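Continuing from the previous page of notes. For each protein in this section, the sequence appears first, followed by its structure tokens. Read the first protein now.
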Amino acid sequence: MGCFTVLLLAAAACCAAPAILFSSASERPAVPGVVPPSVEGIPGRMLAAYSTGAAQIGTHVPACKGMRWQILAGIARIESGHASGKQISPAGDITPPITGPRLDGSGIGGNTTPFPDTDNGLWDGDTEFERAVGPFQFLPETFRAYGKDGNGDGTVSPHNADDAAASAAVYLCGKGRDLNDRSQLRAAIYVYNHSNAYVEDVLSGIDQYDALGITPTVPTGNASTVVAAALGQQGVPYSWGGGGPNGPSRGFCCSPGGQDGSKIVGFDCSGLTQYAYAQAGIQLPRTAAAQAGAGRRIPASAGVGALLPGDLVFYGYDPDADSTIHHVGIYLGNGQMINAPRPGKPVRIDPVTAMPDYAGGARLL
């Protein structure tokens, strides 16, 4: 039945939001608690990618400590100016692709050692020599070894912001560095580029971002699994009645606004929460109203401050009546959630205040 309840089938729009608060990918806030809503000079979609990459490191390199958005931003600031001048889609795809100078040993770009092609031009468009690719400027051979699917779309590409950020996090962490240790952080950056001047430039950027006073609060355990799973679906289309524990799927017809979900592979709001929680081994009911009965209920009267990352966030016409709940998201921290908002809008990060009828949350983790 999607996000709507049987009792309100005629009146409740599945995951309907009152107004569009962010009109483009660059205006979307990034994961709060891990990154601030905005940082001057960094597109919002790139901030979201840095935060996603940092949040996923526990899955890829469990022994790594201290990975945070500031480190990834410090690298990308030098390598591509945070994908400056490029278009970044809601799914994180960067166009036109970012490619560095041809590494043919000519001296252009400081390269005096030729690097023969290893990807048959797949990522760099050059079938004779290598070029660094993407916002983190990986050599194709290196990306092939460390590349991760940061947005969960089944494709790993250095030209996708989420994939590139997750891959850079893995590369910097090595076998399990403690990046809270300045000497280990310095060593990680040096491995990325064997230049002391480069290391100092990157550290300068990291220090500037650290000085913003944002303390990372990346969730751990099952909460981390749930949040990372949901973040990995950013950009997946909304499908009325779509999605579930196994991932995005076709829904059915039709939403109050007329969307035929049977023609779209994606998620509605409760389909997304079902999927994210399934990755932690937790089975949720299908509808938003039914999910309100799972776990420990957090009343709306307790305020948003009572929520923790990974909690379900509900919206209903009567905050004291679970039967009126029509929308659900997953709380990220600092007043933000990830959700499948409504037909025509993909899975994205929104403030909890994006909808006026906050009805509290539920804690299952």
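Done with the first. The second protein uses the same format. Note its length before scrolling.
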Amino acid sequence: MRRIAISVAASTMTLSLAGCGMLNASGDAAEASPTKGNDVTVGILMPEKTNTRYADFDYPIIKAKVASLTNGQGRTAYANAASDADVQATQMQKMIDDKVDIILLDAVDSHAIAGMVKKAKDAGIPVIAYDRLSEGPIDAYISFDNELVGEVQGRTLAEQVDNSSGKIVMVNGSPTDPNAKQFKAGALSELDGKVVIADTWDTKDWNPDVAQAKMTKAIERIGKSNIAGVYAANDGMAGGVIKAFKAAGVTTMPPITGQDAELAGVQRIVAGQQYMSVYKSYPEEAEAAAQMAVARIQGHDIQFDALTRDKVDSPTNKNIPSLLVSVVALTKDNIKDTVVADGIYKISDICTADYKAACSAIGLK
């Protein structure tokens, strides 16, 4: 996949299209003459529940944006597969049977779902791969710049370890998630030659308990005082890594990375237990996905093309219209400028009783 960083907010993009006089560029369906009206149904398939973002951010934002783009007439059908590829296939079949107008698919297993993508295509239902690049004849893809995520994680960790003899552990994501491979590739591009990778593994279903169990064994094998840092691919697994260190009697954590800016991860950063996370603007991704879905259903090709100016390749398809959204490293120094400024969390959400002193110490109040 060719990596490109695009950091244009969906709302800004909509306004710029309107200024150019493009068809339905304002997103106001009442002013357009669409091939399909506002009475549309967008199917949304999410992959797992260990990461709270899907229920807390992605789905509610998409639902609200679809409604606003269709004068309140558009509907969403939502299902979460809880990390079970077979369950997701059944959920997708139901959406095909129910004749939804389009499906936003965040795949549990990007390879295994390819047959269902073809079934949807044969039924005349477009599929947009959301957050993870699915195989099969998808119509478009929207995600964050995944290699950049790994690069940001790897570079930040390498800067903190800053020792070619420093040993680190790599806790990578699920082997069935194509994003995890991109995160790992991006991280290795920054870590190779700068640190010693003493242990590394892929973590089934991004499971924090699995990460904790394997980290416990790594600590026993390498020695707790010999681990200079940990690349954890997301915040959930970072939490498992920290539990393993605590169980081993470690009180001062080495630098540990994360991703997703989950509330618990942000609080660990405030407390000095986790060094960083990667903040990804879920409102930007989710709102743009909703715009893509409605534009595709209603036949607004100019708007759809403007939203998908990049091209990526999957193992089964080439030149897939895409939008890749940029990311930022989240540390204790920019919490207020990122997740707070974007309305993801209030300071009161972060600085609960257990974290008030730590928040005060870094000026977060």
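What the second structure shows: Confidence is low (pLDDT under 50) at residues 1-34. The two ends are 42 Å apart (CA to CA). We return to this in next week's lecture.
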